[in-house]
Design goal:
By secondary structure, the protein is of the alpha/beta class. It contains 27 helices and 21 strands. α8 crosses α21 and α20 (522-541) runs parallel beside α22.
Length: 669
């Protein structure tokens, strides 16, 4: 195992060799015990041995890195920050928390050499430790007592950075304030984590003398810090570089399945019944389109898809957002009232330590190359909402405050949820009367999902059964029983569609976004332009959302996202049809009830795409029955069908395949 790890480390030109603590304890228990109890003395020996082993395999590696560092991974005991006591001093500990502040990178002296001011002799080298500064008493050459100055050229430095780690908000006992600890990072650990990241730190818990504490308390008190040995991010569990070859093979195998699109849709919020249009929109937004640069990178076209969920209370809008937060990569969740303009974009504030103005990114900047989720979008102030105009289309945030003039990247999808005016959506009024959002912001959303809470006895009964079944299955006592007696549990849509497991869905999205770059073909472009022209014509008469050139780009982005969902290199007809259907549904749903019916009739050819093959399958079955009856009449056995007409399943499936129906499972059920 470790030969492979050394090779991987050297290929990537790194200088950290990760060693699992459990491997160490199973191979040699005393070594594991030494490193846990006396890491200050043992780790330098490990580093030296690791360097010798690396040089055995790669003889010239010391020309790239002088030192190799052993990082201890997977220490079995995790401590809480508030439970660290004097027994933990100078031993290896593992703590978790959220990074709240980090300093810039400073050079720290590692080996120091001095020049003698009288004879010019170079004194040293002295190994500098982190606690005290080394002073030279006399010069060994001329025996004078100085003056000595640091020889800047021959002194060896290393990188040094300090983090402040705070307890995770979820682990703080009720009613208490979160505690924090300083983490010291050196060498290649710097800049691994940034403010806002949730991390786990394995390191040595040490104390250093702090004069200010003694003045304050009047007796010797020591400040404690953790010298980091290994840092792991919580979010990296599904990062692209963590995908193994088996994962990649499984993902490619999954993408060959013709029904993978349906499986992905079924895997999105499986605990929520129905709302197929929202699930499609969220799936497309999570996969995203392809970013493009026009004419030598002067003009950039965004590839991210923005979605607005607008609907009555109690249709699970916030639950959808919470699901995306747990599934997508680099997601940031905020609410309309809890987020101000600077909280979403960027804030300039004075650093309490360095006393200078610094820039801190807001939610949209933190979600760069990810998804920003905004709940209660309609409750935001208009001034705050204007601040995200630029972020949603140009995907950058320009700042000119306190002498800082700069542009920050905010390449993220925005998924927002809002309630209509007065709480309920009224189909007899125009879209503008229902929503207190301006046209500029509405046109920046690619997909608008209007969700109405319609009274329908059949659907309501099905929904109630689903919710009751879901509560029954999710109860802690029934979790084990459901696994045993799954036969009598209420079936969910996810189960019937063989939805992907959640962790596989996360890996699938990661793989697709990293390795799949779909391209558009000319035939599809003609179809898109034709639909756009038709929509523009209807927009003149209708009172729904405005249709602008942005919607052409939206169609292209959605087609690419659909192709990426199937890991295809080129966008095909099905992808374009899905994009057109999604766009039309979002346009028609914003119209008055009277206009909706005319538009549905006009665009029927596009809207029926993969909608419901059951009616078509029934027609195919009727056709086969007619043929069988006709055939028997021809051979004179017309009275042989007293109990019904037998049709072979294989014959039916072959015939259905001619009409491009590959999945007959919904028809049978």
């Amino acid at each position: 195992v470790y030969k492979d790890r050394i090779e991987e480390m050297c290929v990537a030109n790194k200088q950290s060799l990760e060693i699992t603590y459990l491997h160490l304890s199973s191979e040699c228990a005393s070594l594991a015990m030494f490193v846990a109890d006396g890491p200050t003395h043992i780790l330098p020996i490990y580093n030296e041995v690791a360097r010798e082993v690396v040089l055995m395999f790669f003889e010239t590696y010391d020309q790239i890195h002088q030192d190799i560092f052993v990082r201890i991974v997977g220490l079995p005991i995790i401590d809480k920050i508030r439970e660290i006591r004097k027994t933990h001093l100078n031993v290896l500990i593992r703590i978790g928390g959220v990074v709240t502040r980090r300093t810039s990178v400073f050079p720290q002296m590692q080996q120091v050499q001095y020049d003698c001011g009288k004879c010019g002799w170079i004194v040293g080298p002295y190994i500098q430790n982190s606690e005290t500064e080394i002073k030279v008493a006399t010069c060994p050459n001329c025996q004078s007592k100085g003056p000595f100055s640091v020889n800047v050229e021959k002194t060896i430095y290393r990188n040094y950075q300090k983090l402040t780690l705070q307890e995770s908000p979820g682990t703080v006992p009720a009613g208490r304030l979160p505690r924090q600890k300083d983490i010291i990072m050196t060498d290649d650990l710097i800049d691994i984590a940034r403010p806002g990241d949730e991390i786990e730190v394995t390191g040595i818990y040490t104390n250093n003398f702090d004069a200010s504490l003694n003045i304050k308390n009047g007796f010797p008190v020591f400040a404690t810090v953790v010298e980091a040995n290994y840092i792991s991010k919580k979010a990296d569990a599904f990062a692209a570089y963590k995908l193994t070859d088996e994962d990649k093979a499984e993902i490619v195998k999954l993408s060959k399945d013709p029904t993978i699109g349906k499986k992905i849709m079924a895997a999105i919020a499986p605990s929520i019944h129905g709302h197929q249009n929202i699930k499609t929109a969220l799936a497309l937004a999570m996969f995203g389109g392809e970013e493009k640069h026009v004419q030598g990178k002067h003009h950039r076209l965004r590839g991210d898809i923005n979605v607005l969920l607008l609907g009555d209370p109690g249709v699970a809008k916030s639950q959808f957002l919470k699901f995306v937060e747990k599934t997508g990569q680099r997601t940031v969740y905020t609410t309309g009232k809890g987020a101000s303009a600077v909280g979403l974009t960027a804030a300039v504030h004075r650093d309490p330590v360095a006393k200078e103005w610094t820039l801190e990114g807001g939610a949209l900047v933190l979600a760069d190359k990810g998804i920003c989720l905004i709940d209660e979008f309609d409750k935001m102030n208009d001034q705050d909402r204007v601040s995200i105009h630029e972020a949603m289309e140009q995907q950058s945030i320009s700042i000119s405050k306190a002498g800082i003039v700069t542009t920050l990247q905010a390449r993220c999808s925005v998924i927002a949820a809002a309630n209509p005016v007065g709480g309920r959506y009224d189909s007899s009024r125009t879209f503008a009367e229902n929503v207190e959002l301006t046209e500029p912001i509405l046109s920046r959303f690619d997909i608008l999902c209007v969700v109405k809470d319609v009274v329908d006895p059949v659907t309501d009964e099905r929904l109630a059964k689903f919710v009751v079944g879901s509560h029954h299955r999710s109860h802690p006592k029934n979790a084990a029983a459901t696994a045993a007696g799954a036969a009598n549990a209420a079936p969910t849509p996810a189960e019937s569609a063989n939805a992907l497991p959640h962790d596989i869905l996360r890996k699938y999205i990661t793989y697709a976004k990293q390795f799949c770059k779909p391209k558009l073909q000319h035939a599809d472009a003609d179809k898109i332009s034709r639909v756009y022209a038709d929509l523009r014509r209807e927009f003149v008469t209708g009172q729904g959302v405005p249709i602008a050139v942005r919607h052409v780009e939206s169609l292209i982005r959605m087609s690419e996202a659909s192709a990426r969902m199937h890991l295809r290199e080129y966008v095909n007809d099905n992808d374009v049809n899905l994009a057109i259907q999604t766009c039309l549904e979002s346009f028609i749903s914003t119209q008055k009830y009277s206009v909706q019916r005319t538009l549905t009739r006009k665009f029927k050819s596009y809207l029926t795409f993969q909608k419901d093959f059951n009616a078509l399958a029934l027609d195919v079955l009727r056709l086969l029955v007619r043929e069988a009856v006709h055939y028997n009449e021809m051979i004179g056995r017309s009275g042989s069908f007293k109990d019904g007409v037998p049709i072979k399943v294989k014959q039916f499936e072959d015939k259905a395949r001619e009409y491009s129906i590959s999945d007959l499972e919904p028809f049978y059920t």
